[in-house]
């Protein structure tokens, strides 16, 4: 089931879908992003397959994907989204610092690869940069270690 934020969308706002199998991370990220008027969260998915379906239905500008989800993970979802909607940018979020996973995500078309523990402003700026410029792929300096409590 898709969760869509009700209300009017700003035409100028970056439209975002969040995909994470951890409901608390997903909800917290949605609340944080809702504080920025330049971003509108239009959907939340619990796995990669649902994220791909949402991209087809909702046509977001950016998808935040948890790299490790059961079933269709973030890397595979990113590759599918790239085929389905090449203009949609994928930002990979993870708790793990796995160089092979980073390489796989970037090869699948991820614009950036960020740790979930970074400050929320870093994620906001990555979303805005990806939407405005399509910048990437990028091993962002935003992957610096910050206590994971920020999104726990």
UniProtKB/TrEMBL annotation:
GO terms for molecular function: DNA binding. Keywords: DNA-binding, Phosphoprotein. Transmembrane segments: none annotated. PROSITE patterns: RESPONSE_REGULATORY (PS50110). InterPro entries: CheY-like_superfamily, NreC/VraR/RcsB-like_REC, Sig_transdc_resp-reg_receiver, WalR-like. One of its GO terms (biological process) is phosphorelay signal transduction system. The modification 4-aspartylphosphate is found at residue 66. This is Response regulatory domain-containing protein.
């Amino acid at each position: 089931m898709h969760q869509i934020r009700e209300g009017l969308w700003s035409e100028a706002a970056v439209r975002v879908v969040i995909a994470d199998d951890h409901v608390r991370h997903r909800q917290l990220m949605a609340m944080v992003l809702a504080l920025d008027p330049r971003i509108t969260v239009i959907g939340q998915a619990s796995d990669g397959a649902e994220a791909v379906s949402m991209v087809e239905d909702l046509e977001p500008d950016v998808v935040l994907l948890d790299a490790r989800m059961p079933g269709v993970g973030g890397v595979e979802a990113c590759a599918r989204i790239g085929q389905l909607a090449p203009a949609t940018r994928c930002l990979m979020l993870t708790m793990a610092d796995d160089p092979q996973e980073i390489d796989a995500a970037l090869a699948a078309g991820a614009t950036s690869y960020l740790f979930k523990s970074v400050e929320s402003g870093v994620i906001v700026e990555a979303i805005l940069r990806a939407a405005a410029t399509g910048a990437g792929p990028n091993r962002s300096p935003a992957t610096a270690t910050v206590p994971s409590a920020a999104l726990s």
